[in-house]
Amino acid sequence: MAEHTMIDAIRMALSRALDEDETVILFGQDIGIDGGVFRATNGLMQRFGSGRVRDTPLSETVIAGMCVGAAAHGLRPVAEIQFMGFLYSAIDQLANHAARLRNRTRGRLSCPMVLRAPFGGGIKAPEHHSESMEAMLAHIPGLRVVVPGSPTRAYGLLLAAIRDPDPVVFLEPKRLYRAGGEPVEDTGAALPIEQAEVLQEGDDVTLISWGAMLTEAREAVETLADEGISAELVDLSSLKPIDRATLRASVEKTGRCVIVHEAPLTAGLGAEIAADLAEHCLISLLAPVRRVTGYDTVMPYLRLEASYLPSTDRVLRAVRDVMEFA
Amino acid sequence: MATRKTSNKSSASKEELLQFYRDMLLIRRFEEKAGQLYGMGLIGGFCHLYIGQEAVVVGLEAASEEGDKRITTYRDHGHMLACGMDPDGVMAELTGRDGGYSRGKGGSMHMFSKDKHFYGGHGIVGANVPLGAGLAFADQYRENGRVTFTYFGDGAANQGQVYETFNMASLWKLPVIFVIENNQYAMGTSQKRSTSTPEIYTRGEPFGIPGEAVDGMDVEAVKAAGEKAVKHCRAGKGPYILEMKTYRYRGHSMSDPAKYRTREEVQKIRDEKDPIEHIRDVLIAGKHAGEEDLKAIDKEIKATINAAADFAKESPEPDEGELWTDIYATEVPQEA
């Protein structure tokens, strides 16, 4: 079977969703004729028409706001925001309307919309084109925040996001878009939207990560295996709500935890996870929970990017620290 | 009555005039009662009354058809009553009770009715405008001929996303009527002090959206303008702007210090332009109704409003467990 990259898998999921449900509409800047900045929607306008795959003006706030209105009236809009750093003005609509419609109307109206946005570093661009501000979104009650970690998971989670009755911000780790392929079968099957995935089982330490940092986490797990350390690797996938049960179960088994994310440290999602483990798994913990994260700086350009992003080496140092602690 | 600046003549039928009178009076009496309940401490937070602006929603509802939609900002009680929502449910929402339209979780600014095609009730000024375009998009996609009345105020007209929406709505020829309720004050800041150009209805021109100013204190003028706008939209010609020149008699909310205008200014409008008194004059002058008939209507409406207030006081308060419901479609365990 042919190998598919994550961008192929995303396109496949969008195509499947458009095909199976005529209420699915794609909105976004340059998603039609151009097929999107990263070509996620390449060919979809040709196949499904410009009525359903719609190039929009450069208006993030209104793209999001129109999605809310259309979703409240029975459509399933899927919008692309070109980069996560362009999403801030749309937070007005996400936080004030999309995430609250169900609560305000006591379930009479819902907001089944998806905002897709590439996020994270790895393409050597600064600031808006590379930052990871997922914790800001995860702080909003009523919103789902989902990050796929592989082509297979991108396909299944995006279908789940589109079919979900609540608003989802679907953050696509752009470093993984073309980082490698695997066979993805276009079965139309969605993955459970709020389940963390245990990618590798282990006994000594739990590594929790998501998105592109799974690459470094995975490398660390392999190196640790050579050293005789058995690490469990968990792909968080759903950043809001958090699958706390899976995380707690893993840490109760291993007694140690290292959280890896490329977003800045302070008030990042690692803090929430560490606090949750401290509150619920204290008896099982053999060592302090450690975080390996980006720094509290502006996402840097070109040469400094490698200094900013957590390296496999930093992950390994943190794991060795917790192993030495107890 | 002698100071009224509007004509007593009308070509509308007796039935229609009486309906205008009834609908506007219902809103006014409702709002007066809401003001009382607020004063009694039964309504939480803020409460924005619509008194003075009744002709806008009543006139436009008369121009609408079944299936047309409406969405507005926070001064929303009048819109809900005008489109036929139940005064009991609206009042009970103000008092935060289970019998309210949002079962006590939305309050004054956040009520909705799918049956009456009322899509809120939104607190962020101007941010409801893209939603209105989205509703209109969904109707256009379904090719069902419906239009969406998207209301906002003169204050909201200074928000950027309004113009992003104008652009998109015009580009895609969305069936949306932008109704600017210009009551001349954005909270306490007069239009003169906040707005660079006074003729807001012309702001669609750069986007190719026709617009007109309407005497928003004259329900018949409102209806006529509404019909024109609706016809334009239903013909597939895209959006239309109606700037309703109107006035609110009460403060921005119930906690308004009212330092920005004089009592005389308010009184002058009440004396000369009141929309309900105007229709009353027309009814009497045209011999469509006598004082006794109008008194009977007033009595009937008072009974409806008193019943709504009783309902709003007696409906049970939401159970504490409701705090955790309707965040997501599936229940998400809460940690605290």
Structural description of this entry:
The complex is a heterodimer of chains A (326) and B (336). Chain A is an alpha/beta fold. Chain A folds into 2 domains: 181 residues, 3-Layer(aba) Sandwich (Rossmann fold); 128 residues, Rossmann fold (3-Layer(aba) Sandwich), CATH 3.40.50. In chain A, 37% of the residues lie in helices and 17% in strands. Chain A is built from 12 helices and 12 strands. Chain A has a 7-stranded mixed beta sheet with strand order 2-1-3-4-6-5-10, with helices on both faces. In chain A, strand 8, helix 8 and strand 9 form a beta-alpha-beta unit. The radius of gyration of chain A is 19 Å and the shape is globular. The mean pLDDT of chain A is 97. Chain B is α/β, with parallel strands linked by helices and 336 residues long. Chain B has a single domain, classed as Rossmann fold (3-Layer(aba) Sandwich). A 5-stranded parallel beta sheet of chain B has the order 1-2-3-7-6, sandwiched between helices. In chain B, strand 6, helix 8 and strand 7 form a beta-alpha-beta unit. The longest helix of chain B has 26 residues. The radius of gyration of chain B is 20 Å and the shape is globular. The N and C termini of chain B lie far apart (61 Å). The model of chain B has no long low-confidence stretch (mean pLDDT 95). Classes of the chains: A alpha/beta (326), B alpha/beta (336). At the A-B interface, helix 3, helix 4 and helix 5 of A face helix 5 and helix 6 of B.
